[in-house]
Records
---
Amino acid sequence: MVKDKEKKPASAAKKTSSKAVKKTSSKAVMKTSSKAVKKTSSRDLAIEQKLKALYDLQSVDSQIDEIRTVRGELPLEVQDLEDEIEGLDTRVKNIDAEINGLEEFIKTKKNEIKDSQALTKKYKKQQDNVKNNREFSSLAKEIEFQGLEIQLAEKKINEYQVTIESKAETIESAKGDLKERQTDLKFKKKELNEIITETEKEEKKLIKKSQKAEKIIEERFLTGYKRIRKNARNGLAVVSVERSSCGGCFNKIPPQRQLDIKLHKKVIVCEHCGRILVDSDIAEIKF
Ligand SMILES: [Zn+2]
């Protein structure tokens, strides 16, 4: 579809004209003829109609693309949120486990303190019944040692408690985030369901419209159209001329080509990207 062969047998033109031209109101013919195409032969009109049909098909297909894009992004957003929630949940659980572990340590240390206190009490009692100084100072050393053990355990307990407090803060903020995300998720899911229901209806309507539009376009144009659309990232196979440039690839269009586009006598494609070019008048035409 690089070059439109004007010499195509009339059968192709007939095919489309027989379908759509019949419905052409005199008003539409007048409207276009008053502009660029002064001598509108039935053949020119057929080309104009083809361009219009391609333009209309593109409009409908672009709407379908848009619907699918919007609908396609929402499940991803939901998935992202679900992943994030799972991550936060794991984080909360991990911190919880860490806090529990620290609390266990504190319990152990408290038991150690109790043991040391019991030993201290026992040694003090034993000191009352010693036979000599050596025994007394040996017990005194033991008592001192247990005193140090108690201090050490208390220091550890304090450290654990500080860590627990900081972890408790972290867990609170993680829980806050988690709650927020869960609310977001609920909202997103609801939104998704609504959009799916709404757009499926709309999409079905548009698909029917697209199929109808395809029927009046001859095979070679349709094949080309579909091929370009498939390869174009934005799904545009028919574009309008915007500021003397192709609306698809934005390359400048030579002035003569621009004039040809305005005449609606040939199907003209962009030299750079192969997209079918139409002028803004095509959008206005009603058949
Ligand atoms: Zn282009």
---
Amino acid sequence: MAERQREREIVDPPTDTKTLRACLYCSLVRTLDQFEREGCLNCDSFLQLKRNKNRVSQCTSASFEGLISMLDPDTSWVGKWQKINGKSMAKGVYAVSVNGRLPRDILNDMPSDVASRYQPRTQS
Ligand SMILES: [Zn+2]
């Protein structure tokens, strides 16, 4: 039961939609506050958003469309569509498309294999 409870907390979409942002690398959607406190669950090792408001505003976007809950990253199409470092993605809510691009200097700072896998999430 404890496991079930935890899962609900993770997958419930955040309620304050005004502050929702999507990660420009993996399209994970969290509140601004969550990104600032915990960073991105998939990308923080190279985006380093945690406790860095400036990075959060550069690497996440408030402009995105479509929300998908990913409950089972191993079998979900979202997981196949966007693999991060070959590892399963975090359970959570993802945007279908995200407007914006990671800044060049941030891409340059990433390990090259991570940077080369970056695909902007814009729809057009
Ligand atoms: Zn991310």
